[in-house]
């Protein structure tokens, strides 16, 4: 007898945003919601404010998890964002110098229709969704975060990628006036990341503009970042200024810095240890116990087919 199993991210009706709020989201957009969406969060002290700005009014939760959310205070104060320093607390302390508005995102390379997008306007017109995703860092910690955004595929499609495009390259802001960490040669700036085109177009890959119901805090990658939940956190490039469709696998910042430690794919994989950290277990921020890390961070049902036939020890 076939067993009907609900996917782990199924949304019970009680969790979906009530219809009347969804409708006000639409009227808000019609009224030009950009101003509301454009308030940056400069410090975690302000993290509790303005919580309705994006979620209750403008986005609908489309994906849930039966796991506790990591508190916003932790999400916005324990970060990797080397442009603002190397300690986990540095981005929350220093990222107030980032100016996330106005912001331009260019989409180019192998596309029929290169685009230069004003991000405030983009946020105002996108049909935003709230999606709860696990994010696991290669260093062994993880979080559960309610992101707000749209599938990256929706925005890339507007630029009409050519059939010959095989990879996507993300380039993030490198402005010494806004980013004190650029004085350190720890990486070859700007921070660059990449995905294979089928990974970039996968429905799970999110172009995020908010979290916890409000615009992205600067330290989490304001105003626009990617979130690729089945890959280690460093694949999720923050504060993106350019997305290029390209023919060859792009050189990413971490592969360039330490090719023995970081591969292009960087799929969460408990069976392939990093030279300095086992990937078998992880600690959720805010918890003491450690839990087993799941293959593809628990998203295998949806993404394993992308890697069929590949030796994931070699293509790590
Ligand atoms: N993006 C930029 N531009 N610079 C960075 O240093 N760090 C990466 C990734 N994106 C990084 C970045 C790493 S190592 C991680 S683990 C995640 O961002 C952390 O995202 P979070 O602070 O929102 O948890």
Number of strands: 13
Q: Outline the biggest β-sheet.
A: 8 strands, mixed
Helix content: 10-25%
What is the CATH topology?
Answer: Sulfite Oxidase, Chain A, domain 2
Order of helices and strands: HHHEHHEEHEEHEEHEEEEHEEH
Structural class category: alpha+beta
Helix tally equals 10
* Beta-strand content: 15-25%
List the domain count as a whole number.
1
CATH superfamily: Oxidoreductase, molybdopterin-binding domain
What would you report as the Rg, rounded to the nearest angstrom? 19 Å
Instruction: Tell me the distance between the termini.
Output: 38 Å
- Uncertain runs with pLDDT below 50, 5 residues or more? 17-52
Give the topology.
Layout: H1 19-30, H2 34-37, H3 55-58, E1 60-63, H4 72-75, H5 90-94, E2 104-109, E3 115-118, H6 119-125, E4 129-136, E5 141-151, H7 152-158, E6 167-172, E7 192-196, H8 197-200, E8 206-211, E9 214-215, E10 225-227, E11 240-246, H9 253-257, E12 281-284, E13 291-292, H10 300-303
Parallel strand pairs: 1-4, 2-11, 5-12
Antiparallel strand pairs: 2-3, 4-5, 5-8, 6-7, 6-11, 8-9, 8-10, 12-13
The structure holds ligand MTE.
């Amino acid at each position: 007898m076939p067993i009907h199993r609900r996917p782990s991210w199924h949304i019970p009706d009680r969790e979906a945003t009530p219809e009347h709020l969804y409708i006000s989201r639409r009227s808000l957009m019609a009224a030009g919601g950009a101003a509301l969406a454009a308030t940056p969060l400069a410090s975690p002290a302000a993290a509790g404010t303005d919580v309705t700005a994006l979620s209750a009014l403008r986005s609908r939760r489309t994906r849930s998890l039966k796991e506790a959310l990591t508190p916003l205070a932790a999400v916005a104060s324990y970060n990797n964002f080397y442009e603002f320093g190397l300690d986990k607390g540095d981005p929350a302390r220093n990222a107030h110098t980032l100016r996330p508005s106005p912001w331009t995102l260019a989409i180019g390379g192998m596309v029929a229709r290169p685009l230069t997008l004003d991000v405030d306007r983009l946020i105002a017109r996108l049909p935003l969704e709230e999606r709860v995703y696990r994010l696991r860092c290669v260093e062994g910690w993880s979080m559960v975060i309610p992101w707000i955004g749209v599938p990256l595929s929706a925005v890339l499609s507007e630029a009409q990628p050519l059939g010959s495009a095989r990879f996507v390259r993300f380039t993030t802001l490198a402005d010494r006036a806004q980013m004190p960490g650029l004085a350190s040669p720890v990486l070859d700036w700007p921070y660059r990341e990449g995905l294979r085109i089928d990974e970039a177009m996968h429905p799970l890959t999110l172009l995020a503009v908010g979290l916890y119901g409000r615009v992205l805090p600067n330290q989490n990658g304001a105003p626009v970042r990617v979130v690729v939940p089945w890959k280690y956190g460093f694949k999720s490039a923050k504060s993106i200024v350019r997305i290029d469709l390209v023919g060859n696998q792009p050189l990413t910042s971490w592969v360039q810095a330490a090719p023995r430690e970081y591969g292009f794919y960087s799929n969460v994989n408990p069976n392939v240890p990093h030279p300095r950290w086992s990937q078998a277990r992880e600690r959720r921020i805010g918890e003491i116990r450690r839990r087993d890390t799941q293959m593809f961070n628990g998203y295998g049902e949806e993404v394993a087919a992308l890697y069929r036939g590949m030796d994931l020890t070699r293509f790590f």
